[in-house]
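Kindly go through the entry underneath: sequence plus fold tokens. Please state briefly how this chain folds according to its tokens.
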Amino acid sequence: MTETRQLTLPIDEPTIRSLNAGDFVELTGEIVLTAGLPTHQRILQYMKDGKPLPIDITGGTLFHLGSYSQDTASGFEVLYINPTTSTRFNAVMPPIVRHYRLRMVGGKGGLDRACVDTLKEVGCVYLSFLGGGSPLLSDAIKEVKAVAWEDFVSHYRLVKLRVEKLGPLVVGIDAKGNSTFETLTEQAKQRMPDILHDLETERANSPSSR
């Protein structure tokens, strides 16, 4: 069985660079998340204007996780979290990762080569969250630490959570430039001719084709 590394946040660059694509990890500490492209665009505007974010992400995390939440008498309550597709953010992630020297990003579906190169440059990894694994992920939530930009719907707000043993998560892209998403895509391309050949053979030998 593959060992799951227990990581405590915040995390330093040498530890990040020691992780390899395919490693399993669990996180304990504070994470920041949002599922909104408008949120990322607002982050870029804050960068352009030289304004500090209401929730600092410097040297930390920015996960592509949606949060279903409700406002209660005691404050903002996150009922569950679930990953959203990271490729929607390909264009905006490199400047954000560089500016804030992020150590971890993540969601589902991976990021493109420009992002992979940026993660390698900065010392950041992409963590793959289990799609449909909301109950498992949500059990790790221990406290809502901060919520910003409440003019957005809850999924798009910038949210800081304290979590314990969030995971297991897979290092989908490491800080060495390796991407499991690219590897799987290349393997699929290499197998495609054989798959198509086998399908054509089965079709030719089927009774309906005679």
Q: What stands out?
A: The longest helix spans residues 180-205. The CA atoms of residues 4 and 24 lie 5 Å apart. The chain has two domains: 4-178, 180-210. The chain has six helices and eight strands.
